[in-house]
From TrEMBL:
Protein name, UniProt field: Probable membrane transporter protein
Transferase keyword on record: no
Species name: Alkalibacillus silvisoli
PANTHER family the UniProt entry points to: MEMBRANE TRANSPORTER PROTEIN, TRANSMEMBRANE PROTEIN YFCA
Subcellular location: Cell membrane
Lineage: Bacteria, Bacillati, Bacillota, Bacilli, Bacillales
Length: 240
C-alpha cells in the first residue's frame, strides 16, 4: 500500500511541477512526511525537484525574468541558514502549523483580489522566505506562488522564473540538509526508484501546460494552495 501511495505522490506531483512550475514540493512534501522521517521526506523532495528543474531549464529559459531571479537568489542567501536552524531546533508539527496558517491566510487574501506591486525589495524578501522554507520543510513554492499570483504574473513567466530559481535553491538546500541533518540509503534508493515516474510526469505536464489558460491556471493555483494549507493544518494538529 505504501508503494502505491508513493507512486501516486511522485507521479501527480511531477505532473504539477512541470505544468505549473511549483506543484512538486507543495503537494509531495506533506504526503511524503506520512511515509518517511522528516529529513528523508525533505531530501527526497529536494533531489527529485532538482532533477525536474534541470530537465526543464532549456525549455523554459526564454520565459525567465533574470532580474527577479537574481534578487530571489540574493535574498535566499539569508533565508537558507535560518531555515536549517528552524528545522534542527523547532518541532516539525509546530513548523507545519505555522506554515499552514500562513498559506491559508495569504491564499484567502488572493481569492479576495488582494494585489501587490512587484519591486526589488519585495523580490529580496520573497527570496529570503523561500530559502528559509526550503531548508526547513523543503517547500520553496508558497512564497513565490503567492507573490507572483498577487502581482498577476503571466503563467509562462511564473513557471520559467520559479523553475530557474529552483535550480539554485534546491541544490543549495540539499547540500545544507546533508551536512547538518545527515542522509541515508533510503533517501537515495527511493529517489532512484522515483525517476521513471518523474519522466512520465515531465511528459504529461508539458502537454497540460500548453492547454491551460491564464484564468484556469489562477483558479488551480488557489485550489492547490488551499488544499496544501488545510492538509498541513490537519496533519500538524494530529488529526490524521
Amino acid at each position: 500500500m505504501e508503494t502505491i501511495i508513493f507512486i501516486l505522490i511522485i507521479l501527480i506531483a511531477s505532473i504539477l511541477q512541470t505544468s505549473t512550475g511549483f506543484g512538486f514540493s507543495i503537494l509531495a512534501t506533506p504526503f511524503l512526511l506520512l511515509l518517511f522521517d522528516a529529513f528523508e521526506a525533505i531530501q527526497i523532495n529536494l533531489i527529485l525537484s532538482l532533477i525536474i528543474s534541470i530537465a526543464l531549464i532549456t525549455k523554459i529559459k526564454k520565459d525567465v525574468d533574470f532580474g527577479i531571479l537574481r534578487r530571489f537568489v540574493v535574498g535566499s542567501m539569508t533565508g537558507l541558514p535560518i531555515g536549517i536552524m528552524i528545522f534542527l531546533l523547532i518541532d516539525i508539527n509546530r513548523l507545519k502549523l505555522g506554515v499552514s496558517l500562513i498559506i491559508l491566510g495569504l491564499t484567502i487574501m488572493l481569492i479576495l483580489k488582494f494585489r501587490i506591486n512587484q519591486n526589488k525589495n519585495r523580490d529580496l524578501v520573497v527570496g529570503g522566505l523561500s530559502g528559509s522554507l526550503t531548508t526547513s520543510i523543503g517547500m520553496p513554492g508558497p512564497p513565490l506562488l503567492l507573490y507572483f499570483s498577487g502581482t498577476n504574473t503571466q503563467k509562462e513567466k511564473l513557471r520559467g522564473t520559479t523553475l530557474a530559481f529552483y535550480l539554485f535553491i534546491y541544490f543549495a538546500s540539499l547540500i545544507i540538509q546533508v551536512i547538518f541533518a545527515g542522509t541515508n540509503k533510503t533517501i537515495w534508493v527511493s529517489s532512484l526508484w522515483a525517476l521513471p515516474l518523474v519522466v512520465v510526469g515531465l511528459y504529461v505536464g508539458q502537454l497540460l501546460f500548453k492547454r491551460i489558460n491564464q484564468k484556469v491556471f489562477r483558479i488551480f493555483t488557489y485550489i492547490l494552495l488551499m488544499f496544501t494549507g488545510i492538509y498541513l493544518l490537519i496533519e500538524s494538529l494530529g488529526l490524521i
